[in-house]
Structure formats: structure tokens, C-alpha cells
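User: I'm putting together a small comparison set for a docking exercise, and I want a reference complex before I start. The sequence is below, and the ligand is zinc ion. Could you produce the 3D structure with the ligand included, as C-alpha cells?
Assistant: Of course. I'll restate your input first, then give the C-alpha cells for the complex.
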Amino acid sequence: MARHGGRGWYGQVAAAALGVTGVAVAASLWTAQAGPVDTRSGAGTSAHRTAPKAAPVSVEIAHASDQGARGVNITIDDGPDPVWTPQVLQVLKEYGVKATFCMIGPQAEAHPDLVKAVVAAGHRLCDHTVSHDVTMDKKSEAYQSQQILDAERMITKASGGVRPLYYRAPGGAFTPYSRKLAASHGMRPLGWNVDSKDFERPGTEAVVATVKDEMSNGPTVLFHDAGGDRSETVAALREVLPWLKEQGYSFGFPVR
Ligand SMILES: [Zn+2]
């Protein structure tokens, strides 16, 4: 039953996403028209073929919330997934919560409708690499670069031009190099303070209890919308989000 409800909602978001696509098309037409102006001002021709580079951000791993001391950042990793992402989006919508979605590049490429739905609902995008290699901190810089920048391109293309604003290393396997590279592309390295442990499926109440017990660790909370049956995640969010509100937390985004 829940999935049928989700589908009805999903149709509305898909329609909204078409509007986003329209904006992206208009923007690229504008860029094409602006081309000759750039040439006269001396800009290289390659600038016409690539999107303007994002402004660099700090290389330090972010944990804080833009809502301050009583802020909380909900982060949703490893998607998008055609079954679970719409259900997570539905719960977030019900409680008026904006979250940060750390996406795997090829999954974003396979489900651009979901990426557009995430953006259309006001959530933020985060680059979670191509292959989710939790040992990438032991690999070459060339490999790390490919993992991060290919995923950035896949996510940005799938979103219709909306860039990921953060980079979260799989399993937290950051390196000084990967943090610097991501930051130079406008993606703030993003950590977490509270691992809900939802990925291990310990039962909905255990996930809820972990979040409640560990909120004193800091504002950034980790959940997952892919990688297996995420029904516990969806159920846990239904309990955690209103509880956080009752505790006086404000939902925000990680600082950049
Ligand atoms: Zn992950």
C-alpha cells in the first residue's frame, strides 16, 4: 500500500522535474548565445564547452550545520534507488525536512528522474564517488580523481546541471588529496557525527535509539536509501524526524 501511495506522489514530482529540465535547457541556450561575447572579451573557446567552474570551498571535513548549535543535518547515502529514494523523499516531505543526498555516480546516471526529484524538492546533492570503494584512501591519486570527478559529472548531468555541493568519501576514506580536489570543484568534504547504523538493519527501534542516544555527538546524521531493503530506514525516519523537532532541533544543511 505504501508503495502505491508513493507512486502517486512520484508522478507529481516527475512533472515538477520537467520544469527543472526546462530551466536547464534555457540556461544552455543562453550560454550558447553568450559565446561570442566571451570570445571578444578574450576568454578561451574551451570555456564555451564546459560549465563555469564552481567556487572553491574549504578542504576541512564539515560536520557543523548551517542552522547553528541546535541544527541537524539529515544525510542520505548510496542512492538514488528506484524503490527507496521515493519513499525517503515522501517522509522528508511530510515533515518539511530538507536533506543532503550523497549519490553514487552510475546510479544517478541510471535514474536521472530521481536526481531531478531530489533537487526539485529542495534537497542538496553530494558526490559519493563512482564505485563506493571504501579503500580508495589506499589507491592512487589518478584513481581517486576518476572516482570523484566522474561521479561529479554523472550527478550534474542527471540533475540537469545542478552540481553536488559536498563530497563524502565512501566509508569516510578521505585523503588530503581527495579533500583538496573536491574542494577545488566546490564540493565541501562532508563527514558525519551520528551513524544511525540503518545499513546493518538492526530493527527500526534500534536505529531510532541509536540516533536518540548519539545526537549529542554532533549535528550530521547518516542514513541510507539504497544497498538493500531500506524499509527500516523509512520507518525510523518517521520516528526520528518528529522527535528531533520536539527536541527543538532545526533541520539544515552542512556548512560549506
Ligand atoms: Zn556510502
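The pocket of zinc ion is lined by residues 77-78, 128, 132, 170 (CB under 6 Å). The two ends are 39 Å apart (CA to CA).
User: Thanks, that's exactly what I needed.
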